[in-house]
Amino acid sequence: MTETASLTDAHADASAQHHSSHLRINVEQASYAYHARKQKAPLFTLEATTFQAREREFVAILGPNASGKSTLLRLISGAIAPLSGRVELDGFETCHLDVRTRAQRIALVQQESPLIFPILAGDYVLQGRHPHGRSLWFEKDEDFAIAEKALAQVGAEHLRDRWMHEISGGEKQRVVLARALAQQPLVLLLDEPTLHLDIRAQIDLLCRLRHLADEHRYTVIEVTHDLDLAAEFADQIVLLHRGKCLRVGPPAAVYQRDLLQQVFEVSLEVEPDPNGRPRVFVQGRKN
Amino acid sequence: MMLGNREPAAGTVSLTHTVTTIYLAHTRAFLIRWFSPVAVRDWFVVGVGITALIIAPLVFCGAAAAQSMTRDNTKSRIDVTDETGRVIRIPQTIRRIVSLAPSVTETLFALGLGDRVVGDTDFCDYPAEAQKRSHVGGPVNPSIEAVAALHPDIVVASREINRLDSVHSLEQLGIPVYATDPHSVDEVLASTERLADLLGAQDAGRALVAKLRGRLDELDRRLAGLPPKTVLMIVWLDPLISAGGTSFLNDALHRSGARSVIDSPQAWPTIDLEEVVRRQPEYLIISNDNAQQVKRELDELQKRPAWRELEAVRNRRFIILSESISHPSPRLIDGIEQLARALYPSKFAMAMPRIRWLYPSFCGLAALSTGEPALPFMQMGEPL
Amino acid sequence: MKPMTVRHVLWSCAILALLLLAMVLLALRLGAVPFSFGDLGQNLWWLITGQTDKVSTDFRLIMVDIRLPRILLGIVVGAALSVAGAGFQALLRNPLADPYVLGVSSGAALGAILALLAAPALPLMTPLAAFLGAAATIAAVYFLGRRQGQLDSGTLLLAGIVTASFLSATIMFLMTTLATRDLRGIAFWLMGDLSASLPRGLLWVLIAGFVIAAGAILTTASDLNVLLSGEREAMHLGVDVTRVKLVVYISASVLTGLAVSVSGAIGYVGLLVPHVMRMFFGSDYRLLIPTSALGGAIAIVVADTLARTVIAPTELPVGAMTAMAGAPVFIYLLRRRLA
Q1: Contact between B232 and B285 (Cβ < 8 Å)
Q2: C226–A contact, CB cutoff 8 A
Q3: According to the 3-state scheme, what is the secondary structure of B127-180?
Q4: How far is A78 from chain B (nearest CA, A)?
Q5: Are residues B166 and B87 part of one domain?
Q6: Residue B137: DSSP 8-state
Q7: I need a labelling partner for A45 at 20 to 30 A (CA). Which of A227, B194, B321, C104 fits?
Q8: B8 vs A137: CB contact, 8 Å cut-off?
């Protein structure tokens, strides 16, 4: 309870600083389309989307499945280039940065590919230092220190000498986050990080993210399904529906009953909680 | 902040450009980063381990390479073409011979050169003294070291059985290799004569060949005018391989008064049983010294339904020959005679004692006269 | 989180190199023609100190002309196959990958057979044709294995398997039409055989090729470590995935082509040596690549020595030895769940 109380204060401070803080990510009319084959109709189109993310800001990209959330995240990370419009990090287009520079500034936490060979969690986190090394390099002491600190920031120091395939889902998620932190990025992108976690682990993760944003000046952009937790922790919500960006703004502005009902196709009610944050009450399938 | 103008990952890569850029950049980076942080003490460790290992043998090779090819050049050398068309350089007088094939060993001993043979293969078992020579391995995979250690003046090989790789390896060491390659009975005789000339045993060669030709002429005389009998020569049972085309075995069959039912351009064709059934050979021929094993195989063959379609199988018309017919050596004539006798017994009934008396050292029947267990060199079932 | 330093790498390599040196000395001593350690030591000493006239002709003939080149060849081939195997395991993200899975050895075998049919008399023809066959296969599989313009592990694996099958079928067809005597040479080649003497110059070319190709893979070692966590993750960690995959693909295939064109398809080495080295030294590719090279060299030298001495003077092909030893090792590794 004290945690949530201090969070609210942090929110208040953060929002006060919004206008003066530095613009990190600028997405301007960015669109994208997936084609199965060239010259055929696209399978999926993400239409022109605009929003901005600043330093110390926590952005949640919300929407049902196949609404283009992951595509938007990949556009921001620079893995794909927008068909039209621009995606910029500190003024430079992310897709035009070379891979290494990009990795030094943007870290992506996503669903893990299965590991082929066994690896220690500590070594796994150390891989996060790779963007800062050179070809055929060996880690220096400061790299180890940074990796240690990253583990500490996620509360996983005790996992350092454990094998990745032997730890639980929640612990693994923390280690992956630690690796992302070891990259010392400016922007943290997370693709549905709370997907397989229990409620305690979910809250734990989001609190840490919030803390990182507030104390350590990260920009955190998260893709999620979870309406309530997004409302609780995010400063800004980007609402997507079938490739269209319907609304961008603080939770109170975005969580409008009709809008949410249209997007998620369920019957629901939106009410503010004691702290002023909107809460969603789902009432079964829409007729 | 380093900026590049490269397109993002999902694009086509230009091969040459990428590869050259990579190699140059990486080599430079590698050289700089790899060598700078290493302490002198570590280099010492490397010096003991890796350098000693890699450089030392190269030094040996290099130092010795200059001298390694010195051969004894005092002997005069002549150029000779072997039966595969290769030109080799051999010394005038040959004292030490290594044979890489059983047929070659037999020929050499038959020419009276047995004491000059210093090494032969594990499978050289005829004549008996051949087994006492140093062995150099099998014909297919001889030990080059063992051959070289015997310091031969010449190595005689057979194209039928030996590998080209072995020949190349020996030549690289400066050891000449003469390969025989006869494709008919006449060529076997000619090959024997050439080999004799080469090795300085012209008289023995001529005498031997004359004797063998005499026997063959005698055979032709006896079999003159007789129609050939159709046979199938079984070289291998599973898969069914016979002799055809240009193999000397095929020619040997002709000389014995037989004709193979298989007409194939390949030397050792794999054939279809149906084809054999269609042509119904009069006899089936197998050449194997182990009579018990052959009997077992033939008994088993009679149980197979596909084989029982052959009249020769049903009527047990098998001819089991000694292995002399499978070697392109002087003993081939023995094998031809055995086969002819088996196919036309009426033509030879009188002549048997005379043959035994005239050619005691070559004839397989010599075994009978010395009281050793007789190799049943032929066996016939009930005639039609 | 044990720090991986240059020193650790060098010490591990030094230990393996000393082991290799011991195996080489043992291999020099053993063979169809016996030498004692005393003889060996004395003659080696004379060679090193340049007193080459004192060295007996027998020693020079057997050791320097026959055994030493063969051992050196074995070292290069073993090292090349192991590094290629380690590279392919990372590239295809599959612990069962070996250097032949992409069809390079079948292409080389086809080249060798065609050389045997066309110009059997020239000793240099076979390795050259085999390497050309390998190169053609590398190019073909590359173009088949692309997806949206870049190498995709899954597509590459499928393309390689299909190519290997097709080439094997062609080889089978040719073998049935070849004369039996030429067949024998190919049968040995297909099993993997180090007994063919090569011209000295070829050995130098091999060594140079190995150094360049293995060096290229070594420079991508830290990228490979990250690549093993997943391709998308690797890209977000600053690895230029396209470039790394291309470098590893070409280098590992070139290494395989070099090895196979001179010694035939020696099996199990490229698959098992990296796994065994992982057991001892861990999965870090910066250490794995040099140790695999040395481990592969040791494996081949030992296997070749056994092949030469087990039923002396008959020589077995090296591939037979590696298969006989490789199968139990593979089973053991499977049991230990290394995959």
Answers
A1: yes
A2: yes
A3: CHHHHHCEECECCCCECHHHHHHCCCCEEEEECCCCCHHHHHHHHHCCCCEEEE
A4: 8
A5: yes
A6: B
A7: A227
A8: no
As for how many domains chain B has, the answer is: 2
* C-beta separation of B63 from C52 below 8 A: yes
Q: What pLDDT, on a 0 to 100 scale, did the predictor assign at position B54? A: 61
- Measured on CA atoms in the order A125, A131, A137, A138, is the torsion positive or negative? negative
**Which chain B residues are within 8 Å of A96, Cβ to Cβ?**
3-6, 8
* Neighbours, chain C (3 or more CB pairs < 8 A): A, B
Q: Which domain holds residue C243?
A: 69-335
Asked whether residue B293 is domain-assigned, the answer is: yes
Per-residue pLDDT, B1: 35
Average pLDDT of the residues of chain B: 76
User: Tens digits of per-residue pLDDT, B181-195?
Assistant: 888 888 999 999 999
Q: Within chain A, which residues score under 50 in pLDDT?
A: 1-19
- Encode pLDDT of C186-243 as tens digits: 777 788 888 877 777 888 888 989 999 998 999 889 999 999 988 888 989 989 888 8
In a domain, B233, yes or no: yes
pLDDT at position C183 over 80? no
Is the pLDDT at B74 greater than 60, yes or no? Answer: no
Domain count within chain C: 1
CB < 8 Å to B30, chain A: 135-136
Shortest CB distance from C283 goes to which of A99, A112, A119? A119
Contact C268, C299 (CB under 8 A): no
Q: Which helix (H) or strand (E) holds A179?
A: helix A169-182
- Determine whether the interchain pair B149/C72 forms a contact, defined as Cβ–Cβ distance below 8 Å: no
**Domains in chain A, ordered, with CATH?**
1-90+186-245 (3.40.50.300), 111-185 (no CATH)
Disruptive mutation site among A106, A135, A140 for chain B (greatest number of B CBs within 10 Å): A135
CATH of the domain at B250: 3.40.50.1980
Give the pLDDT score at C277.
93
Statement to judge: residues B239 and B155 lie in one domain? no
CATH code of C268's domain: 1.10.3470.10
Average pLDDT score, chain C: 86
Residue at C1 is within a domain = no
